[in-house]
Amino acid sequence: MIGVCCAYYLAKRGARVTVLERDEIGSGASFGNAGTIAPGHAPMTKPGRVKQALKNMIDPTSPLYIAPRWDPALMKWLWVFRRHCTETHLKASMEALAPLGHDTRELFDQLVDEEALECNYTAEGYYDVFLTEPGLANATNEASLMWTHGYRPMLLPGEELREREPALRRGVRGGIFYPEAATLNPHSFLREMADRMSRLGAAVRIAADVSELLTSAHRVTGVRLRDGEVLTAGTVVLATGAYSLELAASVGYRLPIQAGKGYHRDRNLGAGGTPSLEITCMLGEHSVFCTPMDGFVRYAGTMEFSGLNHEIRRPRLEQLTRAANLYLTGVGDVESRSEWCGLRPCTPDGLPIVGPVPGCEGLFIATGHAMLGLTLGPITGKLVAEMVLDGAPSRNIDALRVNRF
Ligand SMILES: Cc1cc2nc3c(=O)[nH]c(=O)nc-3n(C[C@H](O)[C@H](O)[C@H](O)COP(=O)(O)OP(=O)(O)OC[C@H]3O[C@@H](n4cnc5c(N)ncnc54)[C@H](O)[C@@H]3O)c2cc1C
Questions:
Q1: Does some domain include residue 23?
Q2: Atom 27, ligand 1: which residue's CA is nearest?
Q3: What's the pLDDT score for residue 217?
Q4: Residue 221 phi/psi, 5° resolution?
């Protein structure tokens, strides 16, 4: 998502761009995410998060799970994360992210319209629904913070929610409607964007596994591929998501990123395995999105810190539909059309890392978008293009600077 969006906006402004992708376009976390564009939402670092994580450490089916193991980098990351779970940091994060949310939503509308992207884009918001009063109260608090930044989330009682979404069970107490949100099929979006960026002149090389960033006299000179091939470039944008650590380390930079694994389970509509939803419902207490896409519903979510691997833990995957069954009628036990896990690039302060690398001219980093990488893709791409071509972004994104840790 991030690399494709950077390449699109750079190519659109006439830059000569090559995208290097070791697999295929849209194969990382961006392939199978929940497809929700959620502007104005707070990052992961929220007051009370650490307590919640510690309580959940022994429950492998909880929404936030840290697989117990000895990993000094994870310990350090958690320590810094803990320091950021404060009201003060939440407010500062919202100051940084809320304006980007407004911009990115506009860019999505523009992209889908101007580029005629076929990606099941539905700009009708989503519901965050709750079974418990404490859950609803918490979400109402967060929603009130969004109001101060120009978003208009609405509190809805259970009855009204059921009128709007008849598949919701009677146990649902209420929820929040986020009108500025939208949904799409992320893989279709990326396929379409890759096509449009190629038409703008960007080259794409798949199966190009970058092993090293090359520098000379404090400036980037290109990259080396795993097979030894060297490609020269005056500018390099590192946008390899959760896999960015090794590449940043090749120029002596330690990125504080942990992989936050999430899962999806897709079920075809009409197969008895899934309710027909009007718009996306997020199952608040379980952090599971139920997103209607073209012909299927995607159950997606959970956050697991278990290292940089793609091992699917069945109980966590199954928890997606088990949770859905608590909130929605019609969630049957049928075969899934797809089961998947992906790695979110998570920073310990919850904010993305976007900007030039000090001391290495021509090198830019754009990663660490955690749960908001789809949402913030277009605005990240646009701002990176501005930094590369104009020397500065049109928005103040100092809070996202590379050397803040
Ligand atoms: C279950 C789940 C649900 C989510 N739901 C949402 C949502 O609803 N809304 C939202 O905004 N966000 C959501 N996210 C988060 C979002 O998916 C991520 O933040 C986003 O995909 C990160 O994009 P990225 O481009 O940084 O990384 P990735 O999508 O992981 O892309 C990195 C790319 O770099 C390539 N690469 C890696 N190493 C190399 C190398 N050495 N050489 C060449 N290429 C390389 C990879 O193959 C990959 O294609 C969700 C994530 C998950 C897992």
A1: yes
A2: 241
A3: 95
A4: -120, -10
Which residue's entry shows tokens 């969630």? 331
Total structural domains within the chain: 1
Who's near 37: CB < 8 A, 6+ residues apart? 104, 105, 108, 181, 182, 183, 184, 374, 375
Predicted pLDDT at 24: 93
* b/e per residue 105-142 (b: at least 16 CB within 10 A): bebbeebbeebebebbbbeebbbbbbbeeebbebbeeb
Q: Among 27-36, 264-273, 329-338, where is mean pLDDT lowest?
A: 264-273
Six-digit token string for 156: 């809805």
Query: What residue owns the CA closest to ligand 1's atom 36?
Result: 240
Give the count of beta carbons closer than 10 Å to the beta carbon of residue 166: 13
**Mutation probe of ligand 1 site: the residue of 2, 344, 347 with most atoms within 8 A of C-beta:** 344
Predicted pLDDT of residue 46 = 83
Nearest CA to ligand 1 atom 48: 28
352 lines ligand 1 (CB under 6 A): no
Q: Find the 32 Cα to ligand 1 centroid distance in Å.
A: 9
CA of 28 to the centre of ligand 1 (A): 4
- 304 in any annotated domain: no
**pLDDT tens-digit profile of 213-242?**
999 999 999 999 999 999 999 999 999 999
CATH of the domain at 239: 3.50.50.60
Residue 263, both tokens: 């899962």
Please work out whether the CB of residue 24 comes within 6 Å of at least one atom of ligand 1.
no
* Residue 304 CB contacts under 8 Å (≥ 6 apart), including other chains: 65, 66, 67, 260, 261, 262, 313, 316
Contacts of residue 27, defined as CB under 8 A and 6 or more positions apart, other chains included, come to 21
Domain residue limits at 233: 2-29+188-257+350-400
With a 6 Å cutoff on the Cβ, whether 23 touches ligand 1 is yes
Location of structure tokens 């100051």:
95
Better-predicted residue by pLDDT, 44 or 157: 157
Whether residue 316 is contained in a domain is answered as: no
Bridge partners (DSSP) listed for residue 355: 365
- In the reported structure, the alpha carbon of residue 346 is separated from the centroid of ligand 1 by a whole-number distance in angstroms of 11
Give me the chain's average pLDDT, please.
Answer: 95
- Pair 345, 353: CB distance under 8 Å: no
